[in-house]
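Chain X:
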Amino acid sequence: MNTRDANSPATASESPKKTMLSAVQPTNPMTLGNLIGAVRNWTSLQRDYDSIFFAVDQHAITVRQDPKALHENTLRAMATFIAAGLDPESCTLFVQSHVPEHVELGWILLCNSTMGELNRMTQFKDKSQKEGAHIPTGLFAYPTLMAADILLYQTQLVPVGEDQKQHVELTRDLALRMNHSYGSALFTIPEPFIPKVGARIMSLQDPTKKMSKSDPDPKATIFLTDTNKQIQTKIKSAVTDSGSEITYGADKPGIKNLLDIQGAMLGEDPAAIAQRYLGKMYGHLKVDTADIVVGHVSKIRDESDRLLGDRAELGRLLAIGAAKARARARTTLDRVYQAVGFVPRG
């Protein structure tokens, strides 16, 4: 019996595993939020799915980047993926710019999108306000490149936070439009996959906002390159809430954030962790959280440093991943080229 989704193209993988894809933008070093909200989930899922993970360096240049910093942050991101437990033999790991098919499909999808759709994207609205009158064109158009990232691999599941669901919705709309316009099922229609635990880690200085790489307050974010001392200092200075009782709830966002961090690191229910702090002070929670984070982050940081010390070996692993990705991406792109009427390559 054929159980393949009726919306899936004939070229989709016939593997019993569903294809899952996600990526991180290599602007600044990765954060504890990236680790908890993305990479740790990837490591637990990589063998259950046909998994594809990459660093989106082409998305990064929608705003001006320091070239040397982008280069190093991209390599650091890939080293961190591996150090955190992603296995290059169990999943496909690569750098976006190493697979030119992303940009090629991105242009076709851009031509099949509308300005109204892109203008409605929440992240464009937020980021363009910061740019003033000089809004980069790439900032407006990059959602179609993100759609290409997903559709190239006939992706079925996209692990995303709530703030990225809109991009998956646009991707679905573009895929359905292309499938309808060209009379064939070119693309699998992807679904957002939102992890229930640890999907959203908040700023240590404003727990109503998501932890961000670009936060201007250096105490707000834990980077995976931070020293043990820096991690301890940041968590011990984290903003807490009025009162002194440690409970898990929306009425205490600062305490909830620390309990969420512990829960994600330990693989436990944050509400259950809160019960262990009955009668204890906020300081106890901060010290314990700092120790737990140091225990996990220090191992990843040290292994990332080791991998970065052997650039030839890291480059070899990235080349293998890019070759695997290109072989798959080319199959999809060839079908799309034929469907839109492009002359086949010689």
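Chain Y:
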Amino acid sequence: MPDFQPFHGLRYDEAIDMNATCSPPYDVIGEAERVALAARTPYNVVHIDLPIPGDEVDNEDPYLRSARLLQEWQDDKVLVTDDELSFYIYRMGFHDDQGRARQTTGVIGALTLTPPTDGHILPHEQTTPKAKSDRLDLLRTTHANLSPIWGLSLAEGLTELCEVPGPPVARATDALGVHHRLWKVTSPGILDAISQAVASTPIVLADGHHRFETSLAYRDERRDAVNGTHGGYDATMALVIELTESQLSVQAIHRLFRGLPALLHEPDALLAALDPYFEAFDAGVGAPNLLTRMDDATALGLVLSNGHSWLLRPRLDAFPDNTPDLDSARLQVATAAVFPQAEVTYQHGIEHILNRVTDSDEGFDIGVLLRPVGVAQI
């Protein structure tokens, strides 16, 4: 079963303005958003977690630059390492799509890496080589997990163990109005209870598939380099949340594709190529009420670079019998067959999809909207 342990966290000094330094996950940040985040402060984590060529210092390798900045921030006490082994309780407060106040609480710790075949950590998405090579290059130079993977646990009572007294050691509010708070837990009794709870059931990987596979590859590299000696690379930083309706308000992570074959750049050709997998219905320009129409039609949404949208209803007999009952799984099967070499980008929010796919500077060919999954499906 999963081995989940406290660790010595590296955190921003508590005097630092966390509203200025926090950032969304690297894989949902567009070019314009990265520029805006980087301009907030020289210490925004995007400078390290999403390096780009030519940024800050000309001709410096972006991954080496991330490593240099990470060390400089520690030298300058912008980042400090906690002396005590700790778990970190992390809470997000937000309003769901119906406007109701919600919160999600989990615990961040060091999750021992095991391959999916062992059954302790269960991924559900395929990954792309480019994204994995990017994260591996970053891990090789920084020797640090810069953001946690996100795991879901069926361990009953984990949420109650995450109810801790006192003020948080860090807090921030992001651009979407989500309130983020962090508590440090060092009590031996609570540390043991959390470790035992997480160890009681496998973890379903909800987010961070590229970072998980990258961490496994990096672990193997390091072990080979030191004749099998164990070290910090044996684990990866993970946020674990109890898999219950009360803790999760699951929203869809949509897809953007660029690099489609030239033959598929015309809408008729693209729809014909997708036809073995999806029945297409014209949904008009601007995607009016598209998410609602997707639910009504049990369909995915296709948005073209000219703003025209279509409903894609899966042809259920077109997919292998072992295909999970998920939009993401069916899309994976279809795109692997129709345009396997295309580059995929993950993006939340229909507004972001519409803005990015119609922005000629971004260069995306299509966006695909997915319906959110429920706890029972997970």
